[in-house]
Design goal:
Blueprint lengths: L26 H5 L4 H11 L6 E2 L11 H12 L12 H15 L9 E5 H13 L5 E6 L5 H7 L3 E6 L10 H7 L4 E6 L12 H13 L3 E5 L24 E6 L11 E5 L2 H14 L5 H10 L2 H27 L12 E2 L10 H12 L1 E2 L1 E2 L11 E4 L4 H18 L1
Parallel strand pairs: 1-10, 3-4, 3-5, 5-6, 6-7
Antiparallel strand pairs: 2-8, 7-8, 9-12, 11-12
Length: 409
Amino acid sequence: MIKDEEKPRIHKVDRPQSGGMQHYLAANARAIPPSGIRRFFDLVSANKDKDIITLGVGEPDFVTPWRVRDAAVYALEKGKTQYTSNAGMPELREAIGQYLYNQFHLTYDPAKEMIVTVGGSEGIDLALRALIEPGDEILVPEPCYISYSPITSLSGGIAVGIETFAEDQFKLTAESLKAAITPKSKLLVLCYPSNPTGAIMTYEEMLPIAKLVEENDLIVISDEIYAELTFKDKHVSFASLPGMKDRTILVSGFSKAFAMTGWRMGYACGHPELISAMLKIHQYTVMCAPIMGQIAALEALTKGGLEEKDRMMESYNQRRRLVVQGFRDMGLECHEPQGAFYAFPSIQSTGLTSEQFAERLLQEAKVAAVPGHVFGKGGEGFLRCCYATSVPQLMEAMERISLFLRRIG
């Protein structure tokens, strides 16, 4: 029997007693702010008036094409409810590889250079976690998708925003990238076509970016979830530039172009050693993407699924022209988005902040849009409006916004 004085002492960790359970949370989890988009749409949910037109959530208004849904239902009836390979069904990876070759002239080995993920978001998370070490700097052109910076922080990295400007059509320039690079820079995150601005980058515009990437030994995470949604110039994948394939982790998915947001189907492609590291994290966290979603994604890549995708793209292009012209007609400057399904008009002429404008627009005109400041540097003074909704709804929204501007002008 151990005497009292010989019993090992239990080390007690001193934690700040702030009340509640907050003091148990990891510091990086405490430091992450709530999503600016979600916070704003809590206001929408709390609004009792059901006559609200929502231009906020980045989600197609189309239902997933019937043949895609039908394939998943049929597979379910046949009892296909098991795990798949961690990396995803081999036949789906083969189909993705063929699709990327046909559409973007990219060649990936489905067995070694590809992983099927739970949405494109998991692909981004896996890539950042596989690459970041504490203190690494991650370069992010802004305004941008709101998740890059928080995921970077959770991985121990430091997100460095690079402001882009309307006069440059919100494209990343070599000059601004060069000015942001330091000895701690490790990754560059690109998202073109862009959420929230709708900006794209051409092959010629990407070449000087690629040169800096090589000179500074950077890895690129290229979020190409909106690759199919380009309306003039065809999308150029950063991985297709000379010398960039091995330096690029391409992340994409089925949510936007195929109207499959709720299926949570994405994929990542890259150098075998990078994909292998991502796969190890994937194995220990989600095991594999859901088989139902994988079967649906495989059907989406058939001839019929691709035809449905093209029909949706034509509709988005019509809506894009309607919305951009609508904002210009009411006196708001609005650069022409060449991709994705967002317009990003300037509301600086009103004298209101983005948040003030968005809240008053919701309360007084019953139109919901996202204040630009939540997307990072350069977003203040702008409003993100998603035009992936019906033409009658868009026309009514434009009329309401126009009347609102006349009232406050």
